[in-house]
Write a structure and sequence with these properties.
CATH architecture of the largest domain: Roll
Largest sheet: 5 strands, antiparallel
Shape: globular
Order of helices and strands: EEEEEEHHHEHEHEEEEEEEHH
Number of strands: 15
Number of domains: 2
Oligomer: single chain
Structural class: alpha+beta
């Protein structure tokens, strides 16, 4: 199956800012059954974009817009070839616990075992672990399959019920959240039983036959746990799925703090507004990927304005920049 992805991010500033520095993690990874065939990143106002790969193989683009501007638009377009996923058994032998411990001792998995910024063992999480009987029993795969189902049943998916930087206690106490919350809670629970677990940022293709709870026009998040001899196995507690051919991996990390789609700063004292649109389409044959995301009609004027050349800063503004 081939997937074409178009991801539009737009920042609107209430008054012009004098500089924006940004990094983006929107370039899908090439690994396992997934191959990124083409990737294109367009930025308005126009600037030079640089790229590098971090220590876990994430593709990161970064840029600096030094001129004055009121809008920042980022359009990422990708074409992927996705092969069928390997079939995951229902369970593993009970000795898989010992095998997993031996593999962890021999490998470099410590950062995916320790608490991280959004996956902390808070009192609320420890109480949740007790209620869900998250402890070493049966075999690792059976336990994680059960946990995936329990989190799906326990929590309600409610868009905008939390923010990207909300601690997991907010979702635990309200029993509702978004995909980031489901992922962070599962990561923290899985690490308590000494299984390496990592956060995956990406996209989920939604077909006509799918019954996913997560929204269509947004990025998605799930987790991967290290389970010898299977390797990294993906679990999507938001939708009670094992990650498969519809899950498109963009970046991996300890939690969301490592892999936001965009992260940056700007010079200026003004509110900013973020808008995002995502479109994932599937085809049996590789499609012709057209540059330029067909955006909602009400966005067209904003994108057009963002592409206008920014005015040159005045002398007073240059002085203000030096002071900030």
């Amino acid at each position: 199956m081939f997937y074409s992805i178009q991801h539009l991010t737009k920042f609107h500033y209430a008054s012009p800012v004098s500089e924006s520095v940004m990094e983006a993690r929107m370039h899908p990874r090439s690994e396992g059954n997934q191959r990124c065939l083409t990737f294109h990143l367009a930025v308005s106002p126009r600037c030079r974009v640089f790229a590098y790969r971090d220590h876990v193989g994430n593709n990161i683009h970064h840029f600096d817009i030094p001129g004055q501007h009121s809008y920042l638009v980022i359009v990422a377009e990708s074409l992927l070839d996705m092969q069928p996923s390997l079939e995951i058994p229902n369970s593993l032998p009970t000795e898989a616990w010992a095998e997993a411990d031996a593999m962890v001792r021999m490998g470099d998995y410590w950062e995916m075992l320790l608490p991280s910024e959004f996956a902390q063992p808070t009192p609320a999480l420890i109480d949740l672990a007790r209620q869900m009987e998250v402890r070493r029993r049966d075999d690792p795969l059976s336990l994680l399959r059960e946990l995936n189902q329990k989190l799906y049943d326990w929590f309600e998916y409610v868009p905008k019920s939390t923010k990207v930087d909300s601690p997991i206690d907010h979702a635990i106490e309200s029993r509702q959240g978004v995909c980031q919350d489901f992922a962070h809670i599962m990561i923290a629970l899985v690490r308590r039983v000494k299984i390496p677990c990592r956060y995956v940022s990406g996209y989920l293709y939604r077909s006509a036959q799918s019954h996913d709870r997560s929204v269509v026009d947004a990025t998605h998040a799930w987790v991967e746990a290290f389970l010898p001899p299977l390797g990294w196995v993906g679990f999507d507690p938001t939708n009670c799925l094992l990650a498969g051919e519809r899950h498109i991996r963009t970046a991996i990390g300890r939690d969301y703090a490592d892999v936001p789609p965009t992260r940056g700063i700007f010079r200026g004292h003004t509110p900013s507004e973020l808008s995002v649109a995502v479109r994932v389409t599937a085809s049996v044959e590789p499609p012709e990927l057209e540059h330029g995301l067909p955006v909602p009609e009400e966005w067209s004027l904003l994108v057009e304005k963002a592409q206008e050349p920014p005015p040159l800063p005045t002398k007073n503004m240059q002085q203000e920049q030096q002071q900030q």
